[in-house]
């Protein structure tokens, strides 16, 4: 289920629970994504990511991070929509602190940042810890009926990089909590 207005372009910042987020967000808002460099080498997935115009970053390399920020900024200036997971990795509950690099690129490009909350009906959708991709994939897809929610927040186009980051993180945290409460009450 999708709520809120999907922006035509700009930066989308989303919480990150799983590799499933990319599929869910692509269905709701076809976009370019920022992904860790390792994804580029994954069988099948790497080829698909390259074909979709994914921007890859080596998170431990300062130059790679700077290059990816410039690439995000160029895409945004060209009117493209780019999705990033500013937590930098997946988390099961709550949110990890947001990194600011992509938000800085959006502010420099003069485009809005739209917070997005992704939530699943089953907590085990989260792919965290040391579990390998294939074991999680096979275990998770044995079950039927998992629902996904994508909630688009308000466009944030005023303030410093830190203010925009904080507004986005607060909105996503509140929305995820609301969706979690709804899931618990529906159970």
Q: Any overview of this molecule?
A:
The chain is 40% helix and 17% strand. By secondary structure, the protein is of the alpha/beta class. It has a single domain, classed as Glycerol-3-phosphate (1)-acyltransferase (3-Layer(aba) Sandwich). A seven-stranded mixed sheet has the order 1-7-6-2-5-3-4, sandwiched between helices. β3, α2 and β4 form a beta-alpha-beta unit. α3 runs parallel beside α4. It is globular and about 45 Å long.
Q: Which SSEs are present, and which pair or pack?
A:
Elements: E1 2-3, E2 10-14, H1 20-28, E3 32-36, H2 45-51, E4 55-57, H3 62-77, E5 81-84, H4 101-109, E6 113-120, H5 133-140, E7 148-152, H6 161-186
Parallel strand pairs: 1-7, 2-5, 2-6, 3-4, 3-5
Antiparallel strand pairs: 6-7
CATH class: Alpha Beta
Number of helices: 6
Q: How are strands sequenced across the largest beta sheet?
A: 1-7-6-2-5-3-4
Inertia-based shape? globular
Main sheet characteristics: 7 strands, mixed
Going by helix content, strand content and strand pairing, the class is alpha/beta
Number of individual domains: 1
Question: What percent of residues adopt helix (DSSP H or I)?
Answer: 40-55%
What are the low-pLDDT stretches, counting only 5+ consecutive residues below 50?
A: none
The CATH superfamily title:
Glycerol-3-phosphate (1)-acyltransferase
Distance between the termini: 17 Å
Q: Averaged pLDDT, please?
A: 86
Using only C-alpha atoms, the radius of gyration works out to 16 Å
Number of strands: 7
Strand content: 15-25%
Order of helices and strands: EEHEHEHEHEHEH
Q: What kind of assembly state do the chains in view correspond to?
A: single chain
């Amino acid at each position: 289920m999708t709520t809120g207005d999907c922006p035509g372009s700009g930066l989308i910042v989303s919480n990150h629970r799983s590799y499933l987020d990319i599929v869910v967000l692509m269905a709701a808002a076809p976009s370019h994504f920022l992904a860790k460099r390792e994804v580029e080498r994954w069988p099948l997935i790497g080829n698909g990511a390259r074909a979709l115009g994914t921007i890859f970053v080596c998170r431990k390399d300062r130059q790679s991070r700077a290059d990816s920020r410039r690439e995000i900024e160029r895409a945004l200036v060209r009117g493209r929509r780019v999705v990033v997971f500013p937590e930098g990795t997946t988390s099961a509950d709550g949110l990890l602190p947001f990194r600011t690099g992509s938000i800085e690129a959006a502010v420099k490009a003069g485009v809005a940042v739209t917070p997005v909350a992704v939530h699943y009906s089953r907590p085990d959708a989260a792919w965290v810890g040391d579990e390998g991709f294939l074991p999680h994939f096979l275990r998770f897809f044995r079950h039927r009926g998992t629902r996904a929610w994508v909630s688009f927040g308000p466009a944030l186009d005023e303030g410093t990089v830190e203010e925009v980051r904080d507004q986005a993180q607060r909105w996503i945290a509140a929305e995820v909590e609301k969706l979690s409460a709804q899931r618990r009450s529906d159970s």
